[in-house]
Amino acid sequence: MSDTATIERTEMKTRPSPKVDPRRKPRQPTPWHVVLHDDDDHTYQYVMQMLQSLFAKGFEESFLMAQIVDSRGCVICETCHKERAEFKRDQITAYGADPLLDRCKGSMTATIEPAQSGEDSAT
Fold first, then answer.
1. pTM for the complete prediction?
2. Does 70 map to a domain?
3. What is the per-residue pLDDT for 23?
């Protein structure tokens, strides 16, 4: 016996890697807006609480967004990839009725829409 270990050489077959142009950037997914729509059945307090809870907005930003949805009829809550936008829309529509208004029977309305290129996603 020899003091040196014998190593068998095993050849592995590998696939050639696909040719990738290093100058080409990968396509980014289309961004989507989560849009909150106004109605007369929810208070500013409800809107602010929902925005703070679901979107981690601060007091001032949630108040500003409540003013925008009240005056313009809608406000963009967030711009993100489609799956998250769908999730956030569903969270809004499942948030429940405004406990401060007896006439309120359910959640606010929210939709998603593709963001236009070059569009400002700020509120």
1. 0.74
2. yes
3. 77
